[in-house]
Amino acid sequence: MTGPLRLVQVGAGGMGRAWLRTIAESPEVELAGLVDLDLDVARAALSDAGLHGVEVGRSTAEVADAVGADAVVNVTVPEAHLVVNEEALGAGYPVLCEKPAAPTVVTALIQAGIAELSGRLLMISQSRRYFASLRELRRQAEALGTIGTVSTEFFKAPHFGGFREEMPHVLLVDMAIHAFDAARFVIGAEPVSVYCEEYNPSWSWYAGAANAAAVFEFEGGTRYVYNGSWCAPGQETSWNGSWRVSAAEGTATWDGEGSPIVHRPDAGESVTVAAPPIREEIAGSLEAFVDALRTGAEPENSIRTNLRSLAMVEGAVASAETGARVRIDDVLERARETASAQTRRDDVREWLRGASIAR
């Protein structure tokens, strides 16, 4: 592919508007079409973004075909991801989809099958991986030898109002996937099991549990410890949380905003390590997607590899509900069985029966 990639975006809501700005600012892509069930909302979003000459419609495939699109960006609500992604992939278009891939591992697995059978890329925008300092934290962790423990403390007190304050498992389901996915990235290995407890303090303004503490075992014996709260007023952490990596040759910390700090006992004082600049958050996701399409390389957040981040969330919820340690492979295997029974597509069912869920 040469020249800017022509994109069709699906979804013109709040997050959709952020994506419109990001696409407009990238020299690697151009917006050719915008799809939304409400055409007036789509036109207003384009006007606010200063974008003109963009095809507007309600059908992803029809708009993409009309404008000669190279790819689709799906910024709809998670419940709509399956329908939009299946239409786009079936019409031959690779897709960059907002996280989470789906509300459940079951639906994400069905989408993984559809993507595999279509021969087109489905990448999940796990955008918080694209912080320069997080990527530097991983580089420093790799240089410290075998990792023993990685921990994240996340303490915020947002008053969202609306659906979040009524959600069950609100912290685990709506926010923790960012930290869980980042932990996979930093550790460079895959989760094996999880034990989790969640609870709701007496002062919480959430209906569901706003606090959670989870311990994940990773391949090789590394432990990842997550301790979080969404009703913790005072001395709040950053939105990325506060991180510590304890390894054989030293420790690296990151406050979620500044540069990582590395301390090697044999080297004396702690050293702050500035990270080289990169395109961050959704701009980073978009850049990785474009690079994957141009090179043919599988990105780190393809649907196939992203499944285990979503499985970490479901495993933590299951552990909190049952009080038992939950194996991540068991989460994926149960999801595979359920997905095979639920899907209406024979080809996807056959793929699910024979697929190897990648580590």
Automatic annotation (TrEMBL):
Which keywords fit this entry according to its UniProt record? NAD
Record bears the keyword NAD? yes
Q: Which organism is it from?
A: Microbacterium luteolum
Domain Gfo/Idh/MocA-like oxidoreductase N-terminal, chain residue ranges per copy: 6-122
Name this polypeptide is given:
Gfo/Idh/MocA family oxidoreductase
GFO/IDH/MocA-like oxidoreductase domain segment(s):
140-252
The record's annotation in Pfam families points to: GFO_IDH_MocA, GFO_IDH_MocA_C3
**Family annotation (InterPro entries):** Gfo/Idh/MocA-like_OxRdtase_N (IPR000683), Gfo/Idh/MocA_Oxidoreductases (IPR051450), GFO_IDH_MocA-like_dom (IPR055170), NAD(P)-bd_dom_sf (IPR036291)
Instruction: Show the SUPFAM superfamilies listed in the entry.
Output: Glyceraldehyde-3-phosphate dehydrogenase-like, C-terminal domain, NAD(P)-binding Rossmann-fold domains
Superkingdom of source: Bacteria
